[in-house]
Here is the input.
Amino acid sequence: MHDLTLDEALEDLSAAEEFLEYFGIDYDARTVQVNRLHILQRFHNYIGQAGELPADKAPRRAVYARLLQQAYQDFVTSDALTEKVFKVFHMHEPQTTFVPLTEITLNKAAEPAVPAAGTCGCGSSGSCGSSMG
Here is the structure.
């Protein structure tokens, strides 16, 4: 992998352990085993937030190593439930929805019909047996 460019090497990596080893980061196998997807997603998020990365290989590699170390460390000192990297962890949080007053309407079809004066409202024509008819 040393003959590859940084981008080519990164394309060949798939497991969190491979990334950590490539960048020379010491890690606890149990921590990675439990949090591997969370670490890689956090690493991806950190890269996205980093802005423009250096064009030269050595400085860019150093930035990637620092960001991966930070992503790994997040799960050494915390856990997946606390860090909430994936959307599924946010699904049961309270949601706030705003409905403007202008969007609130009455559904006329769902309203019960008001019976005519002197009728019971059963719909029969004539004698229904109620005291109204």
User: Anything to note?
Assistant: The chain has a mean pLDDT of 78. The longest helix spans residues 29-49.
